[in-house]
Amino acid sequence: MLLNWIVLLPIICLWTAGIIFMLSFNNNNNELSKNYSLFKSVCENIYFKQCTQSRRAWLNCIENVNSRNRPNGLNQSDFITTWPPSSITSLIDDELPIINLALRAAFTKDAENPLNNKHYQHFRSLTESMKDGRGLWSWQYNLFPQMLDFNKLIVDVENGIPLTNLPINNLEIFALRLPKYVCNPCRRQIIPDLIVVIKSCSYCTAERDHARNTFMQKHLWTNFTVQFVFVVGVPYPNESNMFTFSKHKFKLKNSWWALSRKHDRDRWTFMKRLAMEAELHEDLLIGSFHDTYFNLTTKLIFTFRWLSALCPATVPLFIFVDNDYDLVPRNVIMYYKNKSADELRDLAAGHRNEYRFVIRPYYDGNISNIWAVTLKEFPWALYPAYLCGATFMLGSNIVKRLAIASAFTQHIRVDDAYLGILFSKLNILPQNLDVISLGNGVCNVQSGAINIPLSESKRIIDWKTDSNCNTWPPLSVECLIDKRLPAFNLALKFPLARNALDSIDEVTYNKFGDIISANCKKQEILDDEELEEMGSNSTDYSIYPQNLNFSKLIYDIQYRIPVQT
Asked: The whole model's pTM is what?
């Protein structure tokens, strides 16, 4: 009997272990399959597609997303990873099948609430004691909540070292729809030289189409890999141009919310149109925030988190551009190639504004300037140095640090100023670049400007040929190469006005023709000796075709001002 048990016992143990292994394998396999299907559904934007099937579905989705926007961000127990996250699956929300871009980090069990911090209490008492005036004439921006060692903070978050302070500005921001080819974790990534982030609005369809048909054209970026993405939010229900913050009234200009007003009666119809545009072009990143002028800071933080979490770490540089500006591809490439990869990764540059006065709201009930900020929001009289939002460049190392720091820096509405506060917290002095243009940029483009106002680019740049060929002397020998023959074509290239007058229709040209005609009639009755003396005795050669102001003509052609004749 004992012998039988000695033989059977190992067999029973092996059989039991096999069953346990099979059950464990099946469970792990099911979990893996579940995670994979969820991961794939996020990458394929399944939730967004379901939400935009009908008006009712859209309203339900918005309600679900809004209910997830907890005022204090994620619970402490939800912070389970580092930033940038080690796995994209850790970004998938625990209730909705979409990416949640609230910052993930490790925290100690007794991590301090920022509102209970002694430095925050000092900040509050300071602002409450100030009744009016410009504000503090000091440079101690580190007191602006939160007061932390940000260099140590960045290192700790990157390495998963538990933090002793909870973040003050880590609201949940969902990526409702991801672009298909830019920083999509489900696809084999093409590592671009550059990613261009175009700050658009949900209603700005015309501006997006303009960008796609102009500077985004592939042939303008020869021997250079660039990707483009438009960042938008969702339409704001029942939006008006009147807003109230801290009991102060703010009013948007009519032109700034004209598109919103145009679609006021049927937001769903426009949302459906936006979904169709996203499906057609696959270049929209849609966030869960309401797309209003006063949510630009939220849009900025959302963009930093998405870039740092989902884009390949080897992408060195990002350019941020407003949708009322165009890029000049040749100049962008020239600037890029004059920098090393390390220089690009640590770049923070644009049109720098140095210590501008903080605009204060009216305290008498009148409507305040839209950029006004109360003393309680920002008690200093001057902003730290910041970059104008029209166009600026940030390296990948800088974007990562900004994404982390934004969770620990109190929110203000003015996005340019908020970026300057982040720079100050991180001890970054942004560079001022002459190649960033804010005005009419005919001369600027020729001197290397990488951007130009949309209103000016229509007049200056011929997007069908080359962004810099429509001038003389040409800025590149390539501009002279004939597309039909392997040879130089030395015909003069310059822009013509739409209503340019044909030279044979000019009054002076017709006058010249009349003189020639009259002389021809005389020729019929003159002998040879008289013919030699025939001609006008006038020295007014200006009527010789073409009668133009040649000084102005040469200036216009050099600087690409459309010629009228």
From this structure: 0.78
Instruction: Please give the angle made by the CA atoms of 215, 220 and 226, to the nearest 5 degrees.
Output: 75
> Is pLDDT above 50 for 29?
no
- One domain, residues 313 and 400: yes
Number of domains in the chain: 3
Q: Is 389 exposed, middle or buried (0-12, 13-18, 19+ CB in 10 A)?
A: buried
For the segment 455-475, what is each residue's pLDDT rounded down to a tens digit? 888 777 878 765 456 667 776
**187 and 141 both lie in a single domain:** yes
Residue-by-residue DSSP string for 113-160: PGGG-HHHHHHHHHHHT--SSS-B-S--GGGSSP---HHHHHHHHHHT
393-441 tens-digit pLDDT: 999 999 999 999 999 999 999 999 999 999 999 999 999 998 998 765 5
Q: How many helices (H) and strands (E) does the chain have?
A: 18, 15
Q: How far apart are CA 170 and CA 124, in angstroms?
A: 20
Question: Considering the domain boundaries, does residue 41 fall inside one?
Answer: no
Does residue 266 sit within a domain?
yes
Longest Cα–Cα distance in the chain? 149
The answer to whether residues 552 and 484 belong to one domain is no
| Apex 51 CA angle, 45 and 54, nearest 5 | 135
Q: 233 and 354 share a domain?
A: yes
pLDDT digits (tens, 9 = 90+) for 355-391: 899 998 887 667 778 888 988 899 999 999 999 999 9
Q: What angle do CA 142, 169, 237 make, to 5 degrees?
A: 135
192 and 78 inside one domain? yes
* Measured distance CA(212)–CA(139) in Å, rounded: 43
Residue 530 lies in a domain: yes
Task: From residue 95, give the alpha-carbon distance in Å to each of 54, 98, 309, 310.
Answer: 21, 9, 20, 20
Alpha carbon distance 273, 277 (integer Å): 6
Residue type at position 159:
N
Cβ–Cβ contacts within 10 Å for residue 225, how many? 12
The C-alpha atoms of residue 542 and residue 534 are separated, in whole angstroms, by 19
Residue 408 burial (CB count, 10 A): 26
Q: In the chain, what percentage of residues exceed pLDDT 70? A: 74
Amino acid at site 240: S
Q: Any residues with CB less than 8 A from the CB of 5 and at least 6 apart, and which?
A: none
Name the helix (H) or strand (E) containing 345. Answer: helix 341-345
Place of tokens 């042939």: 219
Among 270, 110, 303, 294, residue whose Cα is nearest residue 204? 270
Range of the domain at 124: 49-432
Asked whether residue 137 falls in the same domain as residue 97, the answer is yes
**Residue 320, in any domain of the structure:** yes
| Tokens found for residue 12 | 């029973």
Angle (nearest 5°) at CA 295 between 364 and 62: 120
Torsion of CA 51, 55, 61, 64, to 10 degrees: -170
**Hey, what are 481's tokens?**
């190469």
Residue 15: is it exposed, middle or buried by C-beta count within 10 angstroms (0-12/13-18/19+)? exposed
Question: How far apart are the C-alpha atoms of 152 and 164, rounded to whole Å?
Answer: 12
Distance CA 564, CA 556 (A): 10
